[in-house]
Amino acid sequence: MKLTKLCRFLLHRPILFNSIAQTSAACCSTMTSLSHGDGGKFLTKDEVKRFPLFHQKRSEEEMTQERKKIDCDRLLGVTTILSRTKSIQDQLILGRWKKKMIREMGEEQFELMQKETLDQGKELHEAIGWYLAGDKNLDEIRVSSKTVPLWKSVQHILKDMSNVHVVEGEVTHGLLGYRGYVDCVAEYKGELYVIDWKTSKKIRKSLDECFDDPTQISAYAGAYNHMQDNIKVSKGMVVKIYHNGRPATAFPMNTFTLEYHWNKWLARLTDHYYKEI
User: Fold this and answer.
1) Distance between CA atoms of residues 135 and 101, nearest Å
2) Is 196 a residue of the active site?
3) Do the bridges between strand 236-242 and strand 42-44 make them parallel or antiparallel, or are there none, so unpaired?
4) Helix axis angle, 255-275 relative to 213-227, nearest 10°?
5) 152 is an active site residue
6) What pLDDT, on the 0 to 100 scale, is given for residue 70?
7) pTM of the model
8) What is the pLDDT of residue 88?
């Protein structure tokens, strides 16, 4: 279900989101009554694009009130927003790849391949979750034969992880109006990261080859930080896990890189909502 069309209520005003200067409780109240024109304070488009990845601390009461009042089911997901705001170039690349695969495999086989890839990804995420939650050791986890290469690919990364904060957790940003499910927040080689597991049939050599993955991680980091009072995460990591069993590739993002992609996320977020007007 779409977010309550925040922008469509405001056809003649260059405003989107509630100001962070308001308390969370007041903010949530305004979010649910925008269509009644109650005259609350909003951020302009430029202010949204400058919204900080790390912002002022809020009281526990404010965060509790926000969690109570936001209808998370009505917030748009990160992946949905990224999909709707892909560049023309990325859309063309994806379209050409799909046409090529259908031409070579046939549409039925292509759809079957997509389903199998999705199923293997789900099974892999489940296995990773068991390990990170401490439910099972690596040698105790069993996966299907088709998922074995993926599971072998990622194990060397898992061995360097510790101090797990989140596994497959929902994060929401009530002020910027989006939600998502973060794969993992944990320490990797002693540093705290927001981590996203991505399966791949093609070897990736740099973060630039990961398309929207870094932007997706930055969105999760911003939402996670928004929900936290004491622990802030300033690094992200894309982990490419390979179907051929080759050792997974970790692409760490330092604070500068994470903030760079956070700014790209804010631009995509505003582009999406302004297109909804």
Assistant:
1) 39
2) yes
3) unpaired
4) 90
5) no
6) 59
7) 0.80
8) 86
The rounded average pLDDT for each run of 10 residues, N- to C-terminus, in the chain (277 residues) is 30 28 32 31 74 75 60 80 90 88 90 92 96 92 96 97 95 89 97 97 94 96 89 95 98 97 95 71
Q: Are 242 and 157 in contact (CB under 8 A)?
A: no
Is residue 198 part of the annotated active site? The answer reads yes
A 10 A CB-CB count for 111 gives: 12
- 197 Cβ partners below 8 Å, 6+ apart? 124, 125, 128, 154, 183, 184, 239, 241
Q: Rounded to whole angstroms, how far apart are CA atoms 67 and 85?
A: 27
Give yes or no for a contact between 151 and 129, defined as CB atoms under 8 angstroms apart.
no
CA distances 170 to 72, 84, 124, 180, 183, Å, are 10, 21, 18, 6, 9
Distance between CA atoms of residues 195 and 253, nearest Å: 10
Other beta carbons less than 10 A from residue 57's beta carbon: 11
Indicate which residue of 2, 119, 122, 183 is catalytic. Answer: 183
pLDDT of residue 228: 84
User: Which of the following is catalytic: 46, 160, 198, 240?
Assistant: 198
Calpha distance 174→225 (Å, rounded): 12
Query: DSSP string of 85-116?
Result: T--HHHHHHHHHHHHHHHHHH-HHHHHHHHHH
Q: Is 190 strand, coil or helix?
A: coil
Catalytic hit among 196, 213, 235, 240: 196
Q: What separation, in Å, do the N-terminal and C-terminal C-alpha atoms of the chain show?
A: 17
Q: Is 117 exposed, middle or buried (0-12, 13-18, 19+ CB in 10 A)?
A: middle
